[in-house]
Amino acid sequence: MIKRSTLALVGLGLVAGCAAAPPVAPAVVSGGKTDQPRQIQTVVADCMKQRGFKYVAWVPEVKISEDAGKAYLGDYEAMKKERTEQGFGIFAGFVHPEQREKRALWRESDSPNFTIKNQLSPAQRVAYGKALTACRSQGLQRVTGKVVTSDEDRAKQENELIAQRLDRDLNADPKLVGLASAMGDCLKGKGHQVASLRPVDMSQRGGEEFEAQKKRIALNDDIPDKGLPAGQYYEPRIPVGTARQYLSREIKAALDDLECGKDFYAAYLPRSMEIVRRVQGEFGSGGDNS
């Protein structure tokens, strides 16, 4: 089962593979590739070899459609098409489970290391996982200078830095403040609750509302969520008929959000994605997670 956080910081809620930490939008939508992921993977492969494990240096090829790329950057027509089908991306997977595979940026099974790991005995897989965690940390520190203790710690640090940069660079921008305020007034006029008019909060409010609904379902179902990192839980089991009702409400809210925020998103999303791309670059994002 997939572990999910409460919501991605940039409010897009994409799942990269089977991410165990808050996912963010792919850096590729803003361009500017670096060789750091490959350098990190080379260090990881050498480290794993020294620990007695076979490991292939591998950087996933992130696949994203042209429409999705435009939607990330605030194109109205692309966002409208996506929201008409997916809403904010919270309940659609329960109604159209086949879409989860199509929307994945890459799959863990694409990695040659997926097969290598699965050929090990249960005890060897545990040892492999511990070695890989240590080797990833070593690779990241050697290439970027960042010190992390685990994959979760890396994701936490990366998302915290994204949040800091978004707050510093976007929440005080006069143009975005004005557009966010107008968006909030419009949404209130349509009967939606708006707790904060700060630009970053406005970009996240719709997705957070429906993510909170899903989380309440998850925490009250029969799947134990104990032992997971803070803010994470196992995806709930939701009957298709029930999920379709949630999705219908979500789509309507997402389209209201877009209509009210058309100008806001066109100005906000390109800048927020650039911040995400820069921070991901600092952490050498793009490496294999298997």
Low-confidence stretches: 1-32
The main β sheet shows up as: 2 strands, antiparallel
Q: Taking all residues together, what is the mean pLDDT?
A: 85
Terminus-to-terminus distance: 16 Å
Kindly report the spatial arrangement of strands forming the biggest sheet. Answer: 1-2
Number of domains: 1
Instruction: Please state the CA-atom Rg, rounded to the nearest Å.
Output: 20 Å
String of helices and strands: EHHHHHHHHHHEH
Tell me the strand percentage band: under 5%
Task: Compute the number of helices.
Answer: 11
Strand tally: 2
Task: Describe the overall structure.
This protein is mainly α and 290 residues long. It has one domain (3-282). 60% of the residues lie in helices and 1% in strands. The chain has helices spanning 36-50, 66-72, 76-86, 92-95, 98-103, 112-118, 122-144, 151-170, 174-189, 199-219, 240-282; strands at residues 3-4, 233-234. The model is unreliable at 1-32 (pLDDT under 50).
Task: Describe the structure concisely.
This protein is mainly alpha-helical.
Question: What topology emerges from the helices and strands here?
Answer:
Layout: E1 3-4, H1 36-50, H2 66-72, H3 76-86, H4 92-95, H5 98-103, H6 112-118, H7 122-144, H8 151-170, H9 174-189, H10 199-219, E2 233-234, H11 240-282
Antiparallel strand pairs: 1-2
